[in-house]
UniProtKB/TrEMBL annotation:
Keyword check for Transmembrane helix: yes
GO terms under cellular component: membrane
Record-annotated Amino acid transporter transmembrane domain positions: 45-440
Keywords: Membrane, Transmembrane, Transmembrane helix
Annotated family: Belongs to the amino acid/polyamine transporter 2 family.
Name of the molecule in the record: Amino acid transporter transmembrane domain-containing protein
Transmembrane domains' residue ranges: 48-67, 128-149, 161-177, 184-204, 231-255, 267-289, 309-328, 349-369, 375-401, 422-444
Organism: Ophiobolus disseminans
Length: 465
């Protein structure tokens, strides 16, 4: 049995309330991966407010840029239902993970939780899915940055060169070692994207026609209350919306660096409440005014001038998003390599060499994916179906069942809760299989019709919808 399992020092609670406050049990140094003591670098320094902002930045930037085009595929009403439904599930599953981690404080990552409930094989599969997910979304962040640089420079360089610049910018920001030190730039990153999106929302409402639509004569606006997509297109759009709030497994490394992990649920509720309200309002307005002519990412939907302004303001936020995704994936590998080593919390050459090597490896891999599949929507949908569905839905359902195994023989209400979490695992399996099939079909169609040119092409594919 792994060391992580031996560090599971707090007994599972049996209360149905799943309260994060576990009474008088002191979990501050009880099995925590990052210790406190003389001669040790203190990593546990993040307040709950900074935690909430980091969570906001992890979730907000990519989703708000892709949901309007997903709305076109599904229609406004099903699209709105998807936003509300998926964000509610994502919030609940985030709380399950936090509650589980507070009961079992030796769990630094979602992979440690997989080890606890399923053993080493599940741990390794979960860790691989975690890395896959955040390498892909880091690639989407690089696509966003390269798209912004393209827009601001009026395509003065080959898009592939802008992708290299984007990768270097993201890697530089991600190399900051502690979440406490990166927290201040997440404030700037969140507000930059929020303001950029707000400018686009206002901008689209001032136009007689969408910027990408024919400016004279009749044209198909493409607004539908209820859409009629193919299965592949519909499941890809639903997976994109789900993915927009599914990065909750990245919350756990941040939680391990909180001053008080018992305040985790407060940060999650603030984050997901704001995200859901912003996603719903912004995406419905942009789709209402742009119809089928919405851009992906959506910052290009209000015309060339507004596009430049919004990308100029949002560039910081896009870069910070990519940096956070690289950071959490690198932190996972870093802790796996140095766990139970004196170098984990020291300032040694081994410590810094390992950390910077992890950053470089994650950044290069994300850059290669960004260049190979440079359409923003498809990257997020691919991450959602392959990795986030099992990580953000399936595994949390399993974690809840693990801590509430006695519910199967309890009251009717307890049995109902138990079965609902079994259903949650079933939803994750359906989304994994169906979503992966759908996005592969969509990517193949995009290569076939020229929406995506060859990998490492100089064409600006990132604005394709």
């Amino acid at each position: 049995m792994s060391d992580e399992k031996h560090q599971d020092l707090v007994e599972p609670a049996t209360s149905s309330t799943d309260s994060v406050d576990i009474g008088k049990v002191d979990i501050e140094n009880d099995g925590e991966i990052f210790k406190r003591g003389e001669g040790l670098e203190d990593f546990r320094t993040v307040s709950w407010i900074h935690t909430a902002v980091i969570f906001l930045k992890l979730i907000f930037a990519t989703g708000v840029l892709t949901i309007p085009s997903a709305m076109y595929t599904l229609g406004a009403f099903p699209g709105a239902i998807n936003v509300l439904g998926w964000q509610a599930l994502n919030t609940w599953c985030a709380l399950i993970q936090g509650n589980f981690r507070n009961r079992h404080p030796g769990c630094h990552s979602i992979a440690d939780m997989g080890n606890l409930v399923g053993g080493k094989i599940v741990k390794e599969i979960t860790g691989l899915l975690f890395l896959t997910a955040f390498i892909i979304v880091a690639a989407s962040g690089m696509v966003g940055v390269s798209t912004a640089l393209n827009a601001l420079s009026e395509h003065s360089l080959c898009t592939n060169y802008f992708s290299i610049i984007a990768a270097l910018m993201v890697a530089a920001c991600a190399s900051v070692r502690k979440f406490e030190k990166i927290a201040w730039i997440t404030w700037a990153g969140f507000f930059s994207v929020f303001i950029a999106v707000f400018i686009v929302v206002v901008g689209v409402t001032t136009r007689d026609r969408p910027a990408a639509a024919p400016q004279t004569g009749a044209y198909d606006f493409g607004y539908h209350v209820i859409g009629h997509p193919t299965f592949a297109a519909g499941i890809t759009a639903a997976s994109t919306i789900f993915c927009s709030g599914a990065g909750t497994s990245a919350f756990l490394p941040v939680m391990s660096e909180m001053r008080n992990p018992r305040e985790y649920s407060k940060a999650v509720n603030w984050c997901m409440g704001l995200v859901t309200a912003a996603y719903l309002s912004f995406s419905l307005v942009v789709y209402k005014w742009c119809g089928k002519w919405v851009a992906s990412p959506s910052l290009g939907s209000a015309g060339p001038m507004v596009k430049k302004i919004s990308y100029g303001i949002g560039l910081i936020g896009l870069c910070v998003s990519g940096a956070l995704y690289v950071h959490v994936s690198a932190k996972y590998v870093f802790v796996r390599i140095l766990r139970n080593s004196k170098h984990l919390q020291s300032n040694s050459l081994v410590h810094w060499g390992t950390w910077l090597g992890c950053i470089a490896a994650m950044s290069i891999t994300s850059f290669l994916i960004a260049s190979g599949v440079p359409i923003f929507n498809y990257l997020l949908s691919l991450a959602g179906s392959i990795a986030f569905a099992p990580l953000a839905l399936g595994l949390p359902g399993w974690l809840w069942i693990y801590d509430h195994a006695n519910y199967w023989k309890g009251t009717l209400w307890q049995k109902t809760l138990y079965m609902l979490h079994v259903v949650l695992i079933g939803i994750s399996i359906f989304l994994t299989v169906g979503g992966t099939y759908g996005v592969i079909v969509q990517i193949m169609d995009a290569y076939r019709d020229g929406s995506i040119e060859s990998a490492f092409s100089c064409a600006d594919n990132s604005n394709s919808s």
